[in-house]
Amino acid sequence: MKMHGKIVFLDPFNFQMYCTNISLLFLCYRFFLSVLQHQKSSKLEWIIIILIAGEMIIGLIGLGLHLYDLKKDGERDQRELLRDEANIKAVKSE
Question: Where are the beta strands (DSSP E) in 1-94?
């Protein structure tokens, strides 16, 4: 191999060292990519957990409002029944 007019001999030991360094760089590169991917997936998992929790809170609020309306309707129905019973007693007593 010639390099700028000089003959350079490749030493097998140096060549092996370069190959080892390159493979080590690729290993580090893959490791850092996997760490980055893990961080992204972890962030997405937390986003999904927060969205599910929000959906559950909204559902519980809706259920609570529905039960409150049912209770209000039940109290109103009881007052109407008492009023009707009072009217029936008043008519019978006349």
Answer: 2-3, 6-7
Judge whether 20 and 27 are in contact, CB under 8 Å.
Answer: no
Residue 5, phi then psi, degrees to nearest 5: 85, -5
Classify each residue of 17-49 as buried b or exposed e, where b means 16 or more C-beta atoms within 10 Å of its C-beta: eeeeeeeeeeeeeeeeeeeeeeeeeeeeeeeee
pTM of the predicted model as reported, rounded to 2 decimal places:
0.51
3-class SS of residue 10: coil
Higher pLDDT, 73 or 34: 34
What's the CA gap between 46 and 29, in Å, rounded?
26
87 token code pair: 């009217």
- Whether 7 contacts 1, CB under 8 Å: yes
Residue 2 β-bridge partners:
7
